[in-house]
Amino acid sequence: MNIHPTAVISELATLGFRVAVGPYSIIEPDTTIGDRCDLHGHVTIKRFSTLGPHNRIYEGAVIGGEPQDLSFTGDDSALTIGARNRIREAVTINRGAGRGSETSIGSDCFVMAGAHVAHDCRLGNRIIIANNVALAGYVEIEDRAFLSGGVVVHQFCRIGILAMIGGNSKIVQDCLPFIITDGMPGRARGLNLVGLRRAGFPAAEIRKLKQAYRILLRSGLALEKAIDELQALGGPSVELLIDFVKKSKRGFCHHGND
Known about the structure:
258 residues, alpha/beta, UDP N-Acetylglucosamine Acyltransferase, domain 1, Udp N-acetylglucosamine O-acyltransferase, Domain 2, nine-stranded parallel sheet, 4 helices, 17% helix
């Protein structure tokens, strides 16, 4: 291990193989830091946080802090972070707000400087969160979503797989998978074609998603009728879209050009 002499590490913390801890960093009790994690200077890892291997945490980040929730009474809750994430300067990530609750982040995510992930959020894998994004409590983000700088997301909203959210957007409803959402409030603007192609989606599947976009967001059909037509269209990506829509509790961002 490479531990700077000014770092403060609790005897009740568990550190894996070849962990590096920079100057003036603090690791509290009841934490677990996986193998080969690299904590830069002035990083704080709060109690009840678990980090998998190969995470890199940059200067000034506070990981696992108490939730910013007036109802929080100090109950034991958790933060769990997977592997190979990059968490940049001054990021704050809060643990769960209720007894036994958890904030979770998957693997291979990139969280840029100044972003905030509130209590009880659930993030998947390979997500990019750009500078100064603010996620309220209980937000769910699926794999490979991209949130541009300055996005703010209302509590309980969901952001689908391979969704892209435009800079400074105000998100108050669910953002559909595979689709670009932008604006204040957020509106669907079209398919995330660049993201789909980079993810290796075949041309035939992208064509089906284009048809699905028109049916769901441009046809003017009632939602039940639109879902019937989507089911007839078929395909694994369309099925994911249907499932996401059916599970939406806040409604989803509809098409707009404003």
